[in-house]
Amino acid sequence: MEFVIISALNGVTYGLLLFMVSAGLTLIFGMMGVLNFAHASFYMLGAYIAYAVSSYFGFWTGLIVAPVIVGIVGMLVERYLLPRVHAHGHAHELLLTFGLAMIIEELIKLFFGDFPVNYQMPDNLRFAAFTVFGTDYPFYRLFIGATAITMFALLWFLLARTRIGIVVRAAERLPAMAEALGHNIPVVFMGVFGVGAALAGLAGAVAGAFYPTNPNMGLELGVIVFVVVVVGGLGSLKGSLLASLLIGLFSSYSVGLDWSLAGLFGLVGLGDWAQSIGGLMTLELSSVSATIPFALMLIVLLVRPAGLMGERN
Amino acid sequence: MKKFAALAAVSTIALGAHAVQAEPLKIGIIESLSGAQTSSGRLYATAVQYGVDKINAAGGFNGEDVQVIEYDNAGGSTGAADKFKQAVADGVNIVIQGASSAIAGQITEDVRKHNLRNPGKEILFINVGAEAMELTGDKCQFYHFRFTTTAPMRVNAMTSAMKEAGDLGTRVYSINQNYSWGQDVQAAINAAAEKGGYEVVDEVLHDVNKIQDFAPFVARIKAANPDSVITGNWSNDLLLLMKATGDAGLDVTFGTAYLDQPGNIANAGETALGHYIANNYDNTAGDASFAEEYKAASGHYPLFVEPQTIFAVGALSQALEGVDFAGGDIDVSKIALALEDVTYETPVGPIAVRKEDHQTIRPVVVSRVVENARYPADDTSMGFEAVKVVPGEQAIYPVQDSCDMKRPG
């Protein structure tokens, strides 16, 4: 029971963090069709800006300033870099953002050094929210989760229930028609890209204080965020949320389970034989927990190539 | 006529002098100077440069300054293999590398093959940080020298020091990264159980630096109810593990191998207090003049992997004093033979090479994180304080059976 509850709690909060980072990525892809490889770099940029700002003006200022600056950086990228390669198709956009990711990483190293920086949450947030089975549950994890849920609610409301949402969706579906009706499509796209980047920046600012802020954080989370978006269905916000939670829970539960193929064979009396083979047979589930999201992606792609909530195109 | 003869003589001498112009010793650093492991790679490179500067200040070698060439392996063994070829083309005599056992495995194989194919133009590989047992086991070879500890040396020293301090307890948890180094540490923890008087309550291997959330692992550690956790984890895997443990309010003592990686202490905060590390050196152990001298040259006290690298270059420098090529061709085999006989005095004790497998016999320092430290880490008030220096003879383990070294000649 203890294992089930604690793993569920850990899995959900981690899943919500994943969602927070992947929301911007899926938004940008869904609305603009740009696969932004530099998205995780925006996440890292957010953490570093929040660190730099918070050391002078306090944690909360950092939390507000970081997404704004990262959003502006995103808009500049959309305005001045992407149009140049847009005519050449997706591959060029991907390569451009890939290069951008490398440049951002090296710039960060140049300014902040190779080592993790000391970006910490404020002391008044550092307490245990509650205690389950003798384990303190840090409040900050709940804070990360709450931020993610708020973000999802706001985004959904904005896109589905407001006039801005209608324009954005129209711009995505029929750009020429929307333009003919007097909407400035380039500005709409720039705005969407900016918001997407800002969301990543906010995620970085919030998560960077809990996980270490180092020059590799973009790289480390970047791959998993892509997995989330692919599993959830490219461009589907709800799909991203579902995939994030799934991956969070799967990773969390797998750690506590020492299941192996040998154990499976043991059920039918072949355990000793499987043990003697070793290798893949005795590989425990817990030792490959970080690989599980990728296995999940493989299965989803085989069964449902468009992702869990993605539209078939 | 006489004048002409003199002129001829002078020019002959000049020409002759030109012909025997000394050949410089070239050291190639093949390190991770970009990508995820830059933080470690850069420190190795800086430390090598510091050591070589000292050799050059004392007159260099073979009548010339020793040259250092940096090669960026971009953090992978493929990059290392490419850069090794380039180093060969540049005429490098000695290769130095430290970050990552996988890369060291690649380099030592490349060096072995190169030396087989190019007798008389051998290359020496000085390994300053890759700790996988197989480098002095299955893959051991004459031209590879390891100037750092290995898993059993660290674990044995750590468990004995923690036991003496009463912080080890009887229930030990083993959590490690699932690759050669982590598996070595896990094996060493199990092997030391009897002598350390503890029971390994649970052991887990996990993916290397892929896990963002260690809370599930902490839940598992808590379920096993250990007194202490011993781990060979480094970088994010250590930091996240310690932070998650601190956040969960779990009361265990950590025994680590890489807690001194820059940024760790500041990021872990007070969670780090009271935890242990076993490594090659600590500023609080032994003579302080080494640390001060290094600070004067580089602006900071030696940290993380720098000391062991400086000691390795120091030992090399001592070996070079014993060989003389009179400005002619450099015979790396002679340097290697001289390096085998070197006993290098470090502030914490002597380092000597074991001829059978070229592992160095060296002291292991166990230290603990304390408040108000003499040498504060990461601009905090915390830092390391040595609790025990285990001399080389006690720390060393028997030569692995798998080592079959072919000596030159």
UniProtKB/TrEMBL annotation, chain A:
One of its GO terms (cellular component) is plasma membrane. CDD domains: TM_PBP1_LivH_like. It comes from the Bacteria. GO terms for biological process: amino acid transport. Coiled coil: none annotated. Pfam families: BPD_transp_2. It is a multi-pass membrane protein. The chain crosses the membrane at residues 12-35, 64-82, 94-112, 139-159, 187-211, 217-234, 241-265, 285-303. GO terms for molecular function: transmembrane transporter activity. Keywords: Amino-acid transport, Cell membrane, Membrane, Transmembrane, Transmembrane helix, Transport. The keyword Signal does not apply. InterPro entries: ABC_transp_permease (IPR001851), BCAA_transport_permease (IPR052157). It is found in: Cell membrane. Belongs to the binding-protein-dependent transport system permease family. LivHM subfamily. This is Branched-chain amino acid transport system permease protein.
TrEMBL record, chain B:
It comes from the Bacteria. This is Branched-chain amino acid transport system substrate-binding protein. Keywords: Amino-acid transport, Signal, Transport. InterPro entries: BCAA_transport, Leu-bd, Leu_Ile_Val-bd, Peripla_BP_I. Residues 1-22 form the signal peptide. Belongs to the leucine-binding protein family. GO terms for biological process: amino acid transport. It holds the Pfam family Peripla_BP_6. Residues 24-371 form the Leucine-binding protein domain. SUPFAM superfamilies: Periplasmic binding protein-like I. The keyword Transport applies.
